[in-house]
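Hey, sorry for the delay on this. The queue was backed up all week. Below are the sequences that define the complex (chains, strands and the ligand SMILES where applicable).
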Amino acid sequence: MEHHIIAEMIEPGGDTLKEWHMIRAGEEEAMCGRVIDLSAEKLPSEAWGTDRARPFCHTCGALFLREVP
Ligand SMILES: [Zn+2]
């Protein structure tokens, strides 16, 4: 299963990051169930756990950990 990290902005289309979420490739909502603007900035899933991907959604992080060997 392929994943991406996607930004949730405080305002849709805005410049201020709220937090990062994990999303499965081809899906339209984050693993925590939040609907994300798919045009927002993305990071590769390898960035999870790095400073680049902070703050990170706790729910997405926990679900991702269970899904990735
Ligand atoms: Zn999330």
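The first strand starts at residue 3 and ends at 9.

I'll add it to the shared folder too.

S.
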